[in-house]
Amino acid sequence: MRTSPLVVIAGGSSQAGIAVAAALLAAGNRVITVGSNAERITSAAEAAGGAIPLVCDLTNPESVTALAAQVHSTFGLIDGLVHLVGGWRGGKGIAEQSDMDWDFLHTSVLTTLRNTSRAFYDDIAASPVGRLAIVSSTSVTAPTLGNANYAAVKSAAETWVGALAQGFSLAAGAEITETGPAAVVLVVKALVDDGMRARSPERKFPGFTHVSVLAENVTGLFATSAAELNGARIIL
User: Fold this and answer.
1) What are the φ and ψ backbone dihedral angles of 179, each rounded to 5 degrees?
2) Beta bridge mates, 183
3) pLDDT tens, residue by residue, 14-24
4) What is the DSSP string of 91-119?
5) Where are the alpha helices (DSSP H) in the chain?
6) For residues 20 and 84, is the Cβ–Cβ distance under 8 A?
7) SS3 156
8) pTM of the predicted model over 0.85
9) How far is residue 230 from each of residues 67, 77, 110, measured CA to CA in Å?
């Protein structure tokens, strides 16, 4: 029997991960935050105010399968997956879109999403408040020469989420209404936190989304109709 919603944050050691975990906890959810470095993810979990830290190489499918088994045996089925694993690589033109940067982005953004969503798909599909959310970029719809690698990988991630959304519709057995699973893309130009502003007080960060705004929107997903959310691309 499910109790309060259990949400897994993939890539939770960043300031965004801390903010999202804190907001979810404040709203009454249980939160597992996952990262590859034990010290960083433990510190992030403490900073969030009570998240459960787990260590996993999210780029490795066998490790993610083991993570899911650990979560299921200890905590039960999950209700939400928030994918915050990312990174950015750019260049001045197509020739500068290096294979090394492509491999990094493909692994960090897309492989980790594929691994985690496959491992927890059935959980989310079966939950009356199942939610899967990723953070994507405005560059998907406005790509440039300098961000071709990044925009292409983010676009692939959005396509993957679209497929999940269609799967959730099928899993519901009928049209998704108020309850049921939903897969959502949250879109930002870039994220900013208080530390970034303090380190660069001269910068204005135009169009950036504060991590607190992201956290508020992620938390709100669990109180919003699945029919309204499933397959949505929401610009923050």
Assistant:
1) -105, 165
2) 132
3) 999 999 999 99
4) -SSGGGS-HHHHHHHIIIIIIHHHHHHHH
5) 15-26, 38-48, 61-74, 99-105, 112-126, 148-172, 194-199, 211-221, 226-229
6) yes
7) helix
8) yes
9) 26, 20, 20
